[in-house]
Amino acid sequence: MNRPTNLIETIEQLAPSLKKAERRVADLVLQDIEATTRTSIKAFAAQANVSEPTVMRFARRLGCDGFSDFKMRLAQDFAVGRMYIEAERKVQSGDAGTTAQRVYQSGMEALSTAFASLQEHALSEAATVVAHASRIVCLGVGGSSALMAQEMENRLFRFGLPATASADPYKQQMLAAIAEKDDAFLIFSVTGKPSSLVEAAGTAASRGAAVIAVTLPESPLARKATLLLPLAIPGDEVHFNFPNRTRYGQLLVIDCLSALVGAMTRPESARRLHRIRRTLLALHGPTEAQPIGD
């Protein structure tokens, strides 16, 4: 069934057009959402003065499989809505200095946490796998992780390595389906839960490819990986206008991994970077401070 993206808003919009019995159901839900998520269908129907089949029809009208499914989705939407409201109440006034200080402090704490959790053996092993892979596939979805996959590909192609990146769930499945034993999959995820990444990791691993996951330990993605680079950065206080700081930790892992791979693939990687620099000189002339390969 097609499920509405926000159940509470859908009920609010639908309520005026409902017949009397189902309107009572909608009104009771909106009157106390939290209580609805904890009640039984029998108790709820009695309180709304309707039959249990009426409650079931209402739930199915909203794309839910039944009352239990309805309560679960209602609880999820209620929790997200409450989180946003609380975050909005806590938002800073907009003072530039205070905001910059918060962002700086949050980034430094994230980097410190990520650095402390780096496992040298795992990092070295991951770099060795990538450096000798026939093909490197970088995957991520969502906000920062999709960008990290693209950034990893951006670092590796400069060394002459056959890297590709994708944030498309369909393409991720296709890339995994054609994985070979000498391939390496680098998968980035803050939570380790996106189904396209978990499924791609499982498929690629089943075909003998190395699957390196930069993600939360004990997550579904971590369990599918053949090599884990654990990244667990405690969430900052929730503010709707502050992005997730885990991306600083992801960048640290990327920088360490690419630096190791570059060293392992010398002298060819150094020659390639030199050729890139010579080519770019024609575009902007000599710039001493510019990074090699940019």
Automatic annotation (TrEMBL):
Keywords: DNA-binding, Transcription, Transcription regulation. Residues 5-81 form the HTH rpiR-type domain. SUPFAM superfamilies: Homeodomain-like, SIS domain. Pfam families: HTH_6, SIS. GO terms for biological process: carbohydrate derivative metabolic process. Residues 126-269 form the SIS domain. The keyword Transmembrane helix does not apply. GO terms for molecular function: carbohydrate derivative binding; DNA binding; DNA-binding transcription factor activity. InterPro entries: Homeodomain-like_sf, HTH_RpiR, RpiR-like, RpiR-like_SIS, SIS_dom, SIS_dom_sf, WH-like_DNA-bd_sf. PANTHER family: GLUCOKINASE, HTH-TYPE TRANSCRIPTIONAL REGULATOR HEXR-RELATED. This is SIS domain-containing protein. The lineage of its organism: Bacteria, Pseudomonadati, Pseudomonadota, Alphaproteobacteria, Hyphomicrobiales.
